[in-house]
Amino acid sequence: MINLNGQNTIAPGIISTFETYDGDLTLKKSQDTVNVYVNGDLIGEKVLIAQGDGGLNAVRDYLLNKGFSDFKYKVDGNNIIIDTDDSISEEVKNHLKIYLNIR
């Protein structure tokens, strides 16, 4: 049995699997994600795997490497917001859909 303090009364010293973690929520979790938007449309989620993957700048760097330079890039909380000219928005969206699915 678990009492109100989260202690196991049958086997003291055994940690309950129902405990919640109240630690530092700013620490990176193993599968942090951010939503990626282009001109207001949700394209997908970018999984932040490790510190070496470019983090929040990886999407911007990917677009720059693909030859796109005429876009605005903003990180707002758990969202990456990209604004482009309508003439290239579909091409940017298609590239990012592929990129986010393989990453």
Descriptive labels:
alpha+beta; 2 helices; 24% helix; 103 residues
Count of runs of 4 or more consecutive helical residues: 2
- How far the N terminus sits from the C terminus, by CA atoms, comes to 43 Å
Going by helix content, strand content and strand pairing, the class is: alpha+beta
Overall geometric form: elongated
Mean pLDDT: 79
What does the main sheet amount to? Answer: 4 strands, mixed
Instruction: Indicate the radius of gyration in whole angstroms.
Output: 20 Å
Helical percentage: 10-25%
Topology (SSEs and partners):
Layout: E1 32-38, E2 41-48, H1 58-65, E3 71-76, E4 79-84, H2 86-102
Parallel strand pairs: 1-4
Antiparallel strand pairs: 1-2, 3-4
Q: In brief, what are we looking at here?
A:
By secondary structure, the chain is an alpha+beta fold.
Verbal overview:
The chain has 103 residues and is α+β, with helices and mostly antiparallel strands. The chain has 2 helices and 4 strands. The chain has helices at 58-65, 86-102; strands spanning 32-38, 41-48, 71-76, 79-84. β3 (71-76) and β4 form a beta hairpin. The radius of gyration is 20 Å and the shape is elongated.
